[in-house]
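cron nightly-structures :: item 1 of 1
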Amino acid sequence: MLKITSLNIIYKIGIQLASLIVPIVGLFNKKIKKGVKGRNKTLNYLNRNIKKGDSVFWFHCASLGEYEQGLPVFKSLKESYPDAKIILSFLSPSGYEIRKENPITPHVVYIPLDTPKNVRSFLKIMSPKLVIFIKYEIWPNYLNALKNHPAKVYLVSALFRPKQIYFRSQIKYFSKILWGFDHIFTQNLDSKKLLESIGYKSVTVSKDTRFDRVSNQLEKNNVLPIIEKFKGSNLCLVAGSTWSEDIEIMWQMINRSQKKLKFIIAPHKIDNEEISILRKKLGKKAELYSNKELVNIENKQILIIDCIGILTKLYSYADIAYVGGGMGKSGLHNTLEAAVFSVPIIIGRNYSKFPEAIELINNGGMVSVNDAISFESTVNKYVQDKEYREKSGKSNKAFVDLNKGASSKIIKKIKADLKD
């Protein structure tokens, strides 16, 4: 069994090496380079914008998905504590770039890498009163340092599995890191039981805050005039957050499809190269959403969304949804965004790490496909059988409604703790 002190040293050496290697890798990768540049600016930005005596709330997310997951909690805390100065941090440029302008705070930064020096400087400047990490964000040096700070520290919408390093009896170091949280809110009972199996007791099963987040979308204006004109009275399949592996099982069927079924494709990546590849596969029947000279859009059968920020609204126009990420190893995207609109959902084959997908499939509202043949047959069944299509969609909406309420449970606990 490795001693905790030995693993602590190994981790610190590893993160120090990462701080040296990442900038070099950034020379050859635009996304990593953005993160390196952004992190270099974080401490100076905080020094300029945090004053002595500020009551600081620090909310941290890995990327955009975690931000959306935490948003109902963030919004409620902002409303309850209007005088707090909120610092929102991201690990990934994909989260930072999209949400550097957001309804929570103007103060958005990259989290410095988890080196002891960075951690000391970061926490010294902020001296946070409240810290919230989302889902998988568990950083050893930050959490160990926060034990010596007066801040209340929470992990929200956590999801644990038996094979994770925290539950390996041979490696005690990583399980002890979890004690840096004052309280952990888990998505399910299995996660709570895993925490209790290693002696961590300050845990509540709150379910997943994403159910609250997607439910709020129904209260917004989801109208997109171009999409209304494009769809008309036709059935429409919206494929959201697709990767190349998803497109590979879809494009031939889409090209063969008759005009009674229209397709909206919103790829996860919208750089010029990806959009160009997609257009070549889909041919002349496809049009770009960004085309400012769109004419006769109602006569087009395929619309490619080459912008960000409208996917949740697009699902409101779907009669069938395909949610991407499950055909490859990138990870299944948020199926609840489509489910809340009473839409039947198709996903790829890799979904075992997503409990909501398992339940949606078991409830009959979602189908997992393995290849182009099963994708086409599933779409055809939804198109041809209106009763089956509508029943599947209603099942998905009922599942979302049943699981709402995580945010209020979390907020109640945090408010009570902050009064102490």
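cron nightly-structures :: done
The CA atoms of residues 326 and 348 lie 4 Å apart.
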